[in-house]
Design a protein that fits this description.
Elements lengths: L6 E6 L4 H10 L16 H30 L7 E7 L6 E2 L2 E4 L4 H19 L7 H6 L5 H20 L3 H12 L5 H12 L1 H10 L3
Parallel strand pairs: 1-2, 2-4
Antiparallel strand pairs: 3-4
């Protein structure tokens, strides 16, 4: 299979933005997390952040995406992936990719790579069905299962591509502060079993 390394099109989505602003400020489930009092940044601020995200992605993004595809032995099924930036969001999305503007440039790249790994697996859902994760991790929650391989690949990116252990530690720390313990549990499994071992065991299931 010929690898497709898609162009990553990072842009502010002015149509989605008011929907997300309303959701964040009015969803009762987000009240305890402070979103009801959140004030969205002015449009020029968001646009400036988008430009910084583009510049940060341009540094290593192409190399990262090639290595993510290579280490998993998978290819994207599309030539362009749009990344929609909105003023704020309580979580990131991978289908389509929607991210908030509140990240620092490096945090943005970290989160984008996370969502791109999900998107890559979704593009290959027929070849890599989700039951593989159930077979490999039968005793873990669905959310944990869905992030073990994602985190293993992220660790590969930090250790072998970016060679930045501090950035890996920062990502793990963010997971420890997440609402669900499932993200942290996924990192624990990656640490216990080894990221390359997990990736190799995963690949054996579909190669």
């Amino acid at each position: 299979m010929t690898n497709i390394f898609p162009k990553i099109n990072i842009k502010y989505n002015r149509f989605l933005d008011p929907i997300f602003i309303f959701y964040c400020q009015n969803n009762p489930e987000l009240k305890e997390r402070g979103w009801n009092d959140w004030k969205p940044p002015e449009a020029p601020v968001v646009l400036d952040r988008v430009e910084k995200y583009k510049a940060e992605w341009a540094k290593d993004g192409g190399e990262i995406i090639k290595n993510v595809c290579t280490v998993l032995g998978l290819s994207f099924q599309r030539n362009i992936i749009d990344v929609h930036i909105v003023s704020g969001s309580s979580r990131g999305f991978s289908e389509p990719i929607i991210l908030k503007s509140g990240f620092s440039p490096k945090e943005f790249v970290d989160t984008l790579v996370h969502e791109l790994i999900h998107a890559l697996l979704q593009d290959n859902i027929e070849r890599v069905p989700v039951r593989i994760l159930s077979d490999l991790f039968p005793d873990e929650s669905t959310l944990t299962r869905n992030h073990i391989i994602t985190h293993a690949v992220l660790k590969h990116v930090y250790i072998d591509i970016l060679k930045d252990k501090s950035r890996l530690a920062e990502n793990i720390e963010r997971s420890s502060n997440a609402d669900s313990p499932s993200y942290n549990r996924a990192w624990e499994i990656v640490d216990e079993r080894g990221y390359l071992h997990l990736i190799n065991e995963f690949r054996k299931k579909y190669q």
